[in-house]
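User: Second chain of the day. Same drill as before.
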Amino acid sequence: MCDHGTVLPASNDDGPHAPEPDSRPPGDGVAGGPDLEVDPEGGKPREACGVFGVYAPGAPVAHLTYLGIYALQHRGQESAGIASSNGDHLTVVKEMGLVSNVFDDRTLAVLDGDLAIGHTRYSTTGSSMWKNSQPVFRDVVHQQFALAHNGNLVNTAQLVDDAGMLPGTVSSDTDAMAEVIALECERLGPGDDTLERALVTVLPSFEGAFSLVLMDRNRVIGVRDPRGFRPLCLGKLDSGWVLASETPALDVVGAHFVRELDPGEMVVIDAAGVRSVRPFDDSSIDPKLCLFEFVYFARPDSQLYDRNVHQARVRMGEQLADQAPVDADMVMGVPESGIPAAEGYARRSGIPFGQGLVKNRYIGRTFIAPSQEMRALGVRMKLNPLRDNIEGRRLVVVDDSIVRGTTTKAMVAMLREAGAREVHLRVSSPPYRWPCFFGMDTGTRGELLAANLEVDEIRRYLNVDTLAYLTLDRLIDAIGAPGAGFCDACLTGVYPVEIPVEIGKGVLDGAAPVAREGLSEMGSVLLADAGVLPSVDAGSLAAETGSGPADGTVTDG
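Assistant: Same format as last time:
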């Protein structure tokens, strides 16, 4: 398939053409050395993407989409893109960077029409580069379409192999999906409903997490995988309809929330209104919304499972206070995501709530640093202690999660330096022990602190006086959605979808693939065939790869 048409890098001033992806520079760089990226939130899991779609004849759909993906910026900061249709052809503008850096009035003016989709990306399968930015575009047999994806497929390599694609044809799971859809469109031939028919045929072949928004010349389509790993909701405008990863993106464009798409549902929006299509077999429907949408990923003003995310996080803190009380002088949250749970802990415990850390709101998720010395200062550039609130006090510090522990360790050191008498760490989720393959980037199991250390060893490594994690049953109770299905694989090792032996960001572009570490000792059945890897000892893996402390090792501060 070809990827031609009107595809514009946002920085291009030379007219409608698509530059060769490999010819684009890797970054602005720093004179005299390679780029060094510092991630101030390196201790957190990172979400894959945010998606948005709008069908609204007569409305400024490009500007609405800009606002929508701006509201979803927290779900991905590597690249941003918008595709629109004027009924005759599609135009795509995308570039590396934040939404506000990619788009301005000039670029939005190019995106005319009555329907559009948008995307913000953080890479899971496929490296961080322009050619992997979204929406992806295809033009085949008089059928143009664009696709944006939140999630991560686990059978990308199999799809590529089954379709007989040559090496290098695609560079991400989203690109592979687009190619499979395009091949089916080519087989079906020209027709007004070719894209919809192609999707009904090929969607059941996709395994893993995928919340999609797609568009052709005349319609916008939303798809949620049979397990509903990632959210997708429908909203109503006076002049049309909106699809979005989270409800705040509906709010910002003035859309009224209608409902969440069901797991396994496809919604088609065109001039006739909204239609619901069920392309998946009923036996495959098994709701498994990611628990970390409630814990960390989703905006606090989002609604998931008809529950407010902020209130769920406050209840997590209340549950944590019941489970792990401690005598202290002040409860503080780690900005921003730890604050609601800290408020709940303070409310339930009766310990005063206060601010102990100030966040630099202008640093962004990543920035370029000229030296390793600057990299080491990344956390201090993001957070600074309020010494007057901290000095001489016994602190309860509440955070939503600990993944690698690097940021947490540095933060605790800052609190100690600021004069904290005691530091009691409370985490509003269970220990994060297993990597995610369904749309968030957590690294390998060897990089996960709780996979390699027991709780007391983690306490000593972080240099805190006491440490407690919220239990899984209390976490689910705090969410307050009885009977709802959740994916908790990162906490239990019980994966709802079979994971291939080799999977990782570079599985399609020549980078060394990541071996899928073993499933949990907590009851998963390991399959010796069908390409599933037997259990691998996390300590041995960490020792072999040099990533993270080996099992049982206590690392000095």
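The chain has two domains: 6-10+46-286, 303-545.

User: Great, on to the next one.
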